Structure formats: structure tokens, C-alpha cells
Amino acid sequence: MVTTDTIRGMKGNEKIACLTAYDYPTAVILDRAGIDVILVGDSAANVVGGERTTLPISMEEMLYHTRVVSRAVANALVIADMPFLSYQTTEHDAVFNAGRFLKLGACGVKLEGGTPILSTIERLIALGIPVMGHLGLTPQSVHQFGGYKLQGSSEKDAKRMIEEAVSLQNAGIFALVLEKIPSRLARTITERLTIPTIGIGAGAYCDGQILVLHDILGMFDDFKPKFVKRYAEIGRDIMNAVLRYKDEVKQGTFPDLEHSFE
Fold it and tell me: Residue range 48-57: average pLDDT?
């Protein structure tokens, strides 16, 4: 079974494969495929709930997704995204909400941001709650960024991100997600840290990679960011299957004798 220690030990030895999951059936598949880390992402707001940002998803919704994913997983490390305002308010709120995820089966939580939440992260870790960090494009700050833009492209921003990455490591996080930043900056951070970096749109130099499952499966035609590689076109396959079913029902060819009881 993959643990946070396993993930730490993979740095420099083996690339870390991570994907998101939000339900039992897909979590079973990811776990059987040998995915190292399954993130119950607040991206469920987008790919499951149809929201434009991750901000609307609630604790209760994230707890549900975490519960059903954790129930499916036997080997992978399950990490839960802490949704917007579940940890930014007070340290008490952060501890209480993070604890709820662990009680449902998650092995740790992921928080977005650096300096403003360092004390919160230190508190969580002191209480035995593993934390994965997240820098770069942090989707919960999309309105502050003015959209889903590349981060860390200026020398000043890159320097700040490197400093925050080191601070997060010193606070005790076991891994760090780097999202939508220049690959050269991701390489610098990866080489500077002793903990693994997990990239999403951060190039090939990170210690591991994560993508949203629905993106690599081609569930949506209208979302094709540069950093996503499609490994299937499941959306098209589902549409074709539904159209065939509809036609057979309309034509009266389903159900046939094979699919009926005498």
C-alpha cells in the first residue's frame, strides 16, 4: 500500500503517477492500474458539477466524493482537496475539516497557497495530518490571477515561488503540486527540494505528474489545454453508444429475444 513515506522515497528513483477520481467505479480502475496517488480534486466542481471554477464546491460535496473514492481504493494513496474557505478562515476550521477527510478514508489533504497558510499547514502536520502543498496556478485564486494564466514567468514571481516552496517543505509537507508554471522554474524547484514535486502543466522535470481524469479520457470537447494529453475519446464513445441505444429503442429492435425472459 502506498503511503506518504512511499511517495517521499520515490523522488529521484521512480516517477510518481497521479490522477483525480471522484466516484467508486473509476477509483477502482485507477487503483487496479497501479496509480500511485489518487487525488479527490475540487475539480469535481468543474467536471462533475459543471461549474466554471472550483470555488462553489462545498465541504459536504467533497466529503461525499472522498468517501466513495476511499471505499474503492486498496493500494493507492488517497489525498483530498480541501475546498475554498474550508481552511482559509481559522486554524480551528482547517483542523476540523481536514480531520473529517481522514475519518472518511483519505490519507492526507491538499491545500493551495504558500506564505499565508504556513502556520495552518504546520498545525495540521503537528497533529498528524499529512499535507500536500500546491503552488503556481492555484485555481481557488483564479479571480486574483485574472484567469487561468501561466504563473512564475517573471523573475520576481519565480523567486517568490522558489522561496515559498522551500518554506512549505520546511513546514513539513510530503509533496508539492506545481501547476502551470514554466518548466525551467519547475526544474529549479524540483532540484532545490528534497520532497517530490508533482507537475500539472509544469513540464517534464517534476518528480511526478497529475492530470484530471476526465481530461485524459476526452470527456469534454470544449476543454483542451496545452498541457493535457488525451489517451482516449470516451466522450465520443459514450455518445455513439447512447445514439445506438436510442435508435434500437425507437426501431423496436431492443430488447430482442436474447435480452428478454421467456
Answer: 97
Catalytic positions, written as ranges: 179
Amino acid at 11: K
Q: Using the predicted structure, report yes or no on whether residue 221 has a pLDDT greater than 90.
A: no
Contact 260, 252 (CB under 8 A): no
Q: Please state the domain count of the chain.
A: 2
User: Cell for 57?
Assistant: 464546491
Burial 27-49 (b: 16+ CB within 10 A, else e): bbebbeeebbbbbbbbbbbbbee
79 near 117, Cβ under 8 Å?
Answer: no
pTM over 0.85: yes
Q: What is the dihedral of CA 153, 159, 165, 168, to 10 degrees?
A: -130
As a whole number of angstroms, the distance between CA 56 and CA 172 comes to: 29
pLDDT of residue 168: 98
Measured CA to CA, the distance from residue 124 to residue 233 in angstroms comes to 40
238 and 226 within one domain: no
Indicate whether 223 pLDDT > 80: no
Look up residue 202 and give its three cell numbers: 509544469
Same domain? 26 vs 14: yes
Judgement on whether residues 212 and 262 belong to the same structural domain of the protein: no
- Banded model confidence at residue 224, pLDDT cuts 50, 70, 90: confident
Domain encompassing residue 245:
234-262
The Cα–Cα gap between 106 and 69 comes to 9
Type of residue found at 25? P
pLDDT in the model for residue 262: 87
The residues with which 122 forms a beta bridge, in sequence order, are none
Q: Cα(222)–Cα(28) distance, rounded to whole angstroms?
A: 27
